[in-house]
Design brief:
Largest sheet: 5 strands, antiparallel
Distance between the termini: 62 Å
Structural class: alpha+beta
CATH superfamily of the largest domain: PAS domain
Shape: rod-shaped
Number of strands: 12
CATH architecture of the largest domain: 2-Layer Sandwich
CATH topology of the largest domain: Beta-Lactamase
Radius of gyration: 52 Å
Number of domains: 3
CATH class of the largest domain: Alpha Beta
Helix content: 40-55%
Strand content: 15-25%
Strand order of the largest sheet: 2-1-5-4-3
Amino acid sequence: MSLRLKLFFTYALVVVVTLLIAALGSAVLVRQYADNLALERLDDAARPISVQVTALIRGNVTLPELIQNMQEQADASGMYILWSDTSGDLVRQLTPQGRAILQFPEGTLPHGVPQGTTGQLTDSTGGEYFYSAYPLARAPAGLARAQTLILTVPRPEAAVALAGIFRPFAWAGIIALFASLLLALWLSRSVYKPLGDITAAAGKIALGEYAHRIDSKETGEIGKLAKSFDRMASEVEASQLKLRHFVADVSHELKSPLTAIQGFSQALLDGTAADTATRDKAARVINEEARRLRRQVDELLDLSRFQSGQLRMSFENVDLAEVLTHSVELFSLPAADKSVALKLDVASGLTVRGDADRLEQVFNNLLDNAVKNSPQFSTVRVAAHKNGARIEATVTDEGPGIHPDQLERVFDRFYQVTGVRTGVGLGLAISREIVLAHGGGIEARSAPGAGVEFVVIFPAG
């Protein structure tokens, strides 16, 4: 069963149950109203008869005359006329013509009433009757035990009480039911439609239509759900776009060493590299390109482990001066080959809580980038100092700068800065992940032609 039908039947069930409760409540109220009305009518009819009985008794009529007169009243009004004694036992009963004689348990009839009163009593068969009882100032002649005059009628049946209003109530209920079902249909549609739109959108996203959006105008929880779905779709689209770019970048980066390896190995196989020098050159190129390929694969694995949280580091107190000094020593020879001077200015007592090997990897990547992009006879400066509760380390070169629009992307995987600056790969991306894992931050500052300054910030250990 679809959600729409479930919602409709749920609303319909609520409506039907509500109408049934309303009908039962109305039946109870109508029955009470009918009972009250019957008691009022009985009292209105019985009061003149009680006055007449009192007048006849005072007029000293004989018992046959009194009985004849009251029998006529019983036949005319359809009321039972009873007399009870001081114990509530029946003394005399006058039954309307065509009615059965009533039997009451001993002591159950009204008696000892100080004034006219109404109520309900039950005969020996369980029949229910309304009565109106009046005290007698004196007993009629021949009925010395009579103390109370009782006029009683059968209690109206519930069906009779409801019969007069059943039709209008039934029509009102039917109209209310159909109106409520139409409303339930509209409400179920109003709930189902946005959910249906979200379901359809999810299906399109699953089929690869990542640009699809709901753009719902709904408010409330459904609107929030639709907006959250659109945000998710945007993130999925961006993620898929990054994935496509990443695959393209990886393919491009791995293609160059693989092409070189394939070409020189083919030269060895087909005999093109005939002399020893050519074979040595081919073997050397294959070895170098294989190392480069292995390094790129390792960097990819490292970056993947960093971003998935799978790479574990051992944190300890690290002297940042020692790390920077060692990195500068490693790059002293490559810098000297390019006639680039390395200057180190590090304050003492700079302690960072982190992994020494990974921290050295960060500064090796930055120095490698700086030396590669430095012109001859320029200087690469490495500095570190404490600034309040944090430690700032900088690597600054005098090479081609980076346009401000590109600064935010230099840490992206395989991002190539346009212009004369070189450096394509994962080094800066990995450096950023390592610094973030140490609770720090890294940024690049530059202007075209003004060199680049990489700033690494760590919390003081």
